[in-house]
Amino acid sequence: MVLLGVNIDHVATVRNARGGLSPDPLQAALIAEDYGADGITVHLREDRRHIKDADLIALKFKITTRLNLEMANTPEMVQIALEIKPYMVTLVPERRQELTTEGGLDVSAHRNALTETVNKLTKAGILVSLFIDPDAAQLKASQETGASYIELHTGAYSQAYFAISQTTAVNMVSERKIDLDQTLVALTKTATDAHQLGLRVNAGHGLNYQNIKPILNIPHLEELNIGHSIIAHSIFTGLGPAVQLMKKLLSE
After folding, report:
1. CA atoms of 143 and 140, how far apart (whole Å)
2. Which of 10, 33, 43, 233 is catalytic?
3. What is the pTM of this model?
4. Which pLDDT score is estimated for 170?
5. Range 222-250 average pLDDT
């Protein structure tokens, strides 16, 4: 069964909108665990727009599953990771102006710097994953850094799935179905090739209750990291049932 990592960034987004203490990301993490989350994922950004350093410390010492820290490859973030020692670090690209992470790492262009960081984190006992697009060159470069995992960026797939849902013309649906199938082929091939290279495979970005099932056919997939759709659904159902429903879909 594919594991579920629940990203709680947007609980912190709501809290920070008013500058107070509520809702508490730690409380959200504990609820998610109670309802079946296999791990908790957070992205500590340079601008601290949602998760803050104090959140990270609280999560490290109080959750009972696994903490996956998404972060950019910067000296500040590497030092924080070495001090906190999360279960896993997922290195992601980061631009200040983006609303959410757009695309995967360019591992080929930054292989030396990433290799240095992977070595530091690995020596500290931290598993390292690289967030990449389904691309052969990026996969090969990822393997050369010494990382244990890749996380496949499923943004193109999610966008293609959404495009079909917004289309009514029959001919356009057919064309967009081809686009969707191509994204799944790319993800499947990259996951297969990653396994052959000795890399373990996670995935995430833009996944929701409607588009999740085809993703589960990707081979060698260990964990999906899902945040926005679960937090959005929780507004209507509560966080526990929202996590529980996603876990049910993953188990099917």
Report:
1. 5
2. 43
3. 0.93
4. 54
5. 98
